[in-house]
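Provenance

Sequences were taken from public entries as deposited. Structures were produced by running a predictor on each sequence independently, with no templates supplied. The record for Coenzyme F420 hydrogenase/dehydrogenase, beta subunit C-terminal domain from Ruminococcus bicirculans is shown for reference.
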Amino acid sequence: MMDSLICEYKKCTGCAACFSICPKNCITMHADDEGFLRPKIDDSMCINCNRCKKVCPINKKSMEDNKFPTAFAVKHKNDSVREKSSSGGVFTAVSEIILKSSGVVIGAGFDENFMVKHKICNNVESLDELRRSKYVQSRIGTVLQDTKKYLDKGINVLFVGTPCQVDGLLSYLGKTYTNLYTIDFICHGVPSPMAWKKYMEFRRKSANAEITDISFRSKELGWKNYSMKIDFSNGNKYSSTVSEDMYLRSFIMDMDLRPSCYDCHFKTIHHLSDFTVADYWGADKQIPEWNDNKGISLVLAHSEKAINLLAECNSVDVLEVPFERAIEGNPSLTTSVKQPNLRKKFMREIQIKSFDKLHDKYCGNNILAKVRRKMPR
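Predicted structure for Coenzyme F420 hydrogenase/dehydrogenase, beta subunit C-terminal domain:
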């Protein structure tokens, strides 16, 4: 059985709910030709229970609700935390509350090769591994099953992921847990792990050294002009802004996103998560007294549990803001990006060409103006 029989092929998000729920462990996640993980079913083991189809979020109706989320502007009181964070540091504040309750935080971090996977954090010291945006689709692995084990033991869990990953978790769990807190984010789309691997290969070769640290959102030039920053084993450093770095540019141009991202099932103001977070683009005009270019988080609270948890976070400044104004700078909340005409060629050639040559061909300086127009101000 192929994943197209679980849900429509191009709509599969790779959330791994089907893999996690299979009672016979006959579903495995395999990379397709573009590097995106998809479920593969061993027909010889399948008992046709259809649990994989039933758990798939794509096969369920989108959530309908007439109530708007409650919107907040949030910034951490500690500037060093904001400097380490993609935006205002709300993830750190909420995570610390969970960890202080002897809970765990589950989110995206790097493995030993700087590929992105979901990891489990149970102490403040290792929280930095999950901090900051990572513009690559994360490998879920067995994290949904691990989450359930923690919850069933009564341990508080904060799970952080894309809207499709959070929906996948909630569908897999199948019931409400009072000790589960979920954060998703306003998602532009998830780039291919293959594209990221090819980019890193180019950077290693250019530096003639191994990578020792990566930040997709360095604030050396400020929050609004963030940079890709890479440290190497020979002491060299690479830094380039969002409009100049070839990987970030291909991401903003939507060249290497998962097919489901171009018609995303989860583009709605009504999320199943407790929180939706994002950069508060436009806050410089709406809240000028906070305009220090160090980062401000937009937080949409979808539940009373979320509002109560945010109220416990004494380490942040919180300001309730009008919902409609708050989301003006984040059209990706409700609108999918359009698939570029050259996207299929880009992804086909990424298997055989180095990233720099591919970038020059499809994302070169002739389209730099287009990238800058899409950058948030």
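Residues 70-190+258-333 form a domain with the Aspartate Aminotransferase; domain 2 fold (CATH 3.40.640).
The first helix runs from residue 17 to 21.
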